[in-house]
């Protein structure tokens, strides 16, 4: 890459360039990773190095914020510290009375800790702690008969009202209603007042010929896996709620799936406030409450991320339908469940060529399914990883590039600060939003999207809808 290209990656905090080159700042005598969050130097004061050894030979010393030497030898102590802290919070959230306790335990200053959680988990320490408390409460609601108040206080909530408000906001039902999922397969999920239901309908009916899902009137039906059980999920759309019914399996698993489909856990309100303050109200006009509809499973997202690469949408849908019909079985009413990884792993790449898969795409698909089926790629563990660790894990899979990985992080794992680089919907949206006379390239996309951090996933969802007809 040229100096200008590397400098653009530096300005964009592009973590994918970590290790490809190192940034030396001549005025401070320090060398860093391209993703370092330190104040950006002027281009004239920067020199780029292929290794930490060449940077040290030039008389520079390593940065104490991004630790480039540790990265070069395969270690990342700061990330490991944050991941250890995150695991402690998830294991026992009640041990942390509030954010101050999290800061004290971390050993970092408050500003630095906030920055690290934004970078590695795409959230704040306070929000991470809140979600850990709610997760702990949900487990006890499902598994015990303890009073709701006891569970709330044991999870670390100071008041019952705060517990009820946050539980209902992120889960669409009350704690008592959640507990009742033990004995019912029918329940209702409330939607926020500003929720644009028509956009959810559009998201769930993208492929009118789908063999796994069907939309008729106000009723959406899909073949899904609930834990290891194949089932039909039915959503009856009302103005401010989704009436949910499942034919088999766990209602708790069904609830988690519906919350993901509706994107209820995403902080769209904070994104909208930030966008309006930046002067980009047009981006969210008419759909302020838009969320990213999550894929039914990580493997389902992985299939789409490989199938959908570098081909048009309708052809990608056709290929996916053919794969499903080849590897899955229909339920009693004709709907298919998405194929399990084991079924795809049993194929040979040549089996997909008559279905119009390219040889390369077929090879990627089968090889990746085998990694999942044998446990070499643990999709369940991806959900517990930091965004940084998940990104590195996925980028190591042959056939997954920056677009595929960021798509998975955003649409299957729920991280909120991702940019699917090379996505034509994103570049077209940026061209329109910023009134450009050209589509931005990779570097310009990163630079323009930086304005929306730490909500670039939500910005992506709005850019996909920008200038499209209203649903």
Give a structural overview.
- With 471 residues, the chain is an alpha+beta fold.
- Among the domains are: 3-72, DNA Methylphosphotriester Repair Domain (3-Layer(aba) Sandwich), CATH 3.40.10; 76-173, Orthogonal Bundle (Arc Repressor Mutant, subunit A); 184-265, DNA-3-methyladenine glycosylase AlkA, N-terminal domain (TATA-Binding Protein).
- It has 25 helices and 9 strands.
- It has helices spanning 3-11, 52-57, 68-72, 77-91, 99-106, 110-121, 125-143, 148-154, 160-171, 175-179, 197-204, 251-262, 268-278, 281-284, 298-307, 313-327, 341-345, 349-352, 359-373, 379-382, 387-395, 402-411, 424-433, 442-449, 456-465; strands at 22-25, 30-32, 46-49, 61-62, 186-190, 213-216, 219-226, 229-237, 241-246.
- It has a 5-stranded antiparallel beta sheet with strand order 5-9-8-7-6, with helices on one face. Strands 3-1-2-4 form a 4-stranded mixed beta sheet.
- Strand 8 and strand 9 form a beta hairpin.
- Helix 1 runs parallel beside helix 24 and helix 15 (298-307) packs antiparallel against helix 22 (402-411).
- The mean pLDDT is 94.
How would you classify the helix and strand content by structural class? alpha+beta
Task: Give the strand order, joined by hyphens, for the main sheet.
Answer: 5-9-8-7-6
Distance between the termini: 43 Å
CATH H level of the domain at 76-173: which superfamily? Homeodomain-like
Taking all Cα atoms into account, the compactness measure Rg is: 23 Å
What is the level-2 CATH architecture name of the domain at 76-173? Orthogonal Bundle
Average residue pLDDT: 94
Helix content: 40-55%
Biggest β-sheet strands, sense, barrel = 5 strands, antiparallel
What is the CATH first-level class name of the domain at 76-173?
A: Mainly Alpha
């Amino acid at each position: 890459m040229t100096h200008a290209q590397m400098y653009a990656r530096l300005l964009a905090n592009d973590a994918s360039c970590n290790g490809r080159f190192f940034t030396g700042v001549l005025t401070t005598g320090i060398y860093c990773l391209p993703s370092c969050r330190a104040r950006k130097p002027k281009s004239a004061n920067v020199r780029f190095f292929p290794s930490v050894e060449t940077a040290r030979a030039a008389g520079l010393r390593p940065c104490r914020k991004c630790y480039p030497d540790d990265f070069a030898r395969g270690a990342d102590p700061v990330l490991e510290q944050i991941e250890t802290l995150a695991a402690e919070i998830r294991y026992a959230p009640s041990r942390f009375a509030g954010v101050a306790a999290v800061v004290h335990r971390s050993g970092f200053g408050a500003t630095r800790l906030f920055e690290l959680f934004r970078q590695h988990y795409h959230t704040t320490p306070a929000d991470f702690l809140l979600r850990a408390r709610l997760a702990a409460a949900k487990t006890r609601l499902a598994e015990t008969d303890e009073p709701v108040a006891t569970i709330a206080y044991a999870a670390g909530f100071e008041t019952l009202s705060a517990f009820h408000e946050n539980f209902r906001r992120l889960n669409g039902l009350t704690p008592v209603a959640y507990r009742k999922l033990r004995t019912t397969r029918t329940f209702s999920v409330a939607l926020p007042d500003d929720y644009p239901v028509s956009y959810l309908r559009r998201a769930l009916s993208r492929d009118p010929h789908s063999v796994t899902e069907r939309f008729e009137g106000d009723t959406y039906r899909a073949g899904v896996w609930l834990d290891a059980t194949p089932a039909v999920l039915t959503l009856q759309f009302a103005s401010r709620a989704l009436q949910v019914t499942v034919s088999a399996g766990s209602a708790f698993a069904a609830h988690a799936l519906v919350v993901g489909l509706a994107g209820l856990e995403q902080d769209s309100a904070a994104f909208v406030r930030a966008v309006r303050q930046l002067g980009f109200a047009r981006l969210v006009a008419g759909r302020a409450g838009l969320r990213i509809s999550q894929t039914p499973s990580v493997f389902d997202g992985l299939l789409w991320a490989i199938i959908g690469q570098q081909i048009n949408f309708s052809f990608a849908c056709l290929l996916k339908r053919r794969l499903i019909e080849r590897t899955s079985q229909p339920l009693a009413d004709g709907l298919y469940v998405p194929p399990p990884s084991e079924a795809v792993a049993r194929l040979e790449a040549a089996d997909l060529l008559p279905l119009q898969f390219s040889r390369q795409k077929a090879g990627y698909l089968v090889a990746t399914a085998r990694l999942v089926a044998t446990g070499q790629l643990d999709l369940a563990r991806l959900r517990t990883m930091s965004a940084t660790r998940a990104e590195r894990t996925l980028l190591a899979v042959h056939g997954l590039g920056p677009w595929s990985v960021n798509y998975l992080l955003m649409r299957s794992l729920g991280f909120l600060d991702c940019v699917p680089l090379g996505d034509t919907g994103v570049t077209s949206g940026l061209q329109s939003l910023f009134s450009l006379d050209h589509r931005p390239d990779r570097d310009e996309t990163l630079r323009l999207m930086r304005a929306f951090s730490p909500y670039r996933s939500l910005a992506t969802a709005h850019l996909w809808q920008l200038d499209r007809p209203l649903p």
